[in-house]
Specification:
By secondary structure, the protein is α+β, with helices and mostly antiparallel strands. Helices cover about 20% and strands about 35% of the residues. It contains three helices and six strands, in the order ααββαββββ. Strands 1-2-4-5-6-3 form a six-stranded antiparallel β-sheet, covered by helices on one side.
Length: about 160
């Protein structure tokens, strides 16, 4: 018996009616299982080995030369994509069918730089509080030695998704 190959990564936007038909946890897991398309922004960080539980999302990624800024290190936008995605998706995992979120604000603190030699980084997003209208979350990026690279917090607006016609 042979293992079947991993599904090919496809990037795109899931129709709102598909998203609305699933719990937040099922929606996020479907993206990670590649039965739904990955958001196009993630093509920039090429995540792998992503997991989702209620209120927690973990994303692994490897920074490379393509992520460099003009001063010779990984651009802060790389960390911002990972942190914002992990926090937002962690919030999504707590939402019932028919609900979504949008980021109202987030704050990032950079602790140490990354380079193409950093290796695999682990981004973990955790929900701090999920209310009917507002959710807060935090995330941390650590290197393969467990050292903190960056951390962030966010506030998200929770809302009912539009009903299909």
């Amino acid at each position: 018996m042979t293992d079947s190959p991993a599904p090919q990564v496809q990037y795109g936007v899931t129709p709102i009616e598909v998203m609305a038909s699933m719990s937040g946890l099922d929606f996020v897991r479907a993206i990670f299982a590649r039965t739904l398309p990955e958001p196009p922004i993630m093509e920039n960080v090429a995540p792998f080995d992503c997991t989702a539980e209620q209120g927690v999302v973990v994303i692994h990624s490897v920074p490379g030369l393509r992520h460099y800024n003009p001063i010779g290190s990984v651009h802060g936008g790389y960390a911002a994509i990972l942190l914002d995605s992990a926090m937002g998706l962690a919030v999504q995992t707590t939402l019932p069918k028919g609900f979504g979120y949008t980021t109202l604000e987030f704050k990032i603190s950079f602790v140490r730089g990354m380079s193409k030699d950093t290796g695999t980084v682990r981004t973990e997003g955790k929900v701090l509080n999920a209310g009917r209208r507002v959710a807060t979350a935090e995330a941390r990026i650590t290197d393969d030695k467990g050292k903190l690279v960056a951390h962030a917090t966010t506030t998200c607006l929770v809302f009912e998704l539009p009903k299909g016609t």
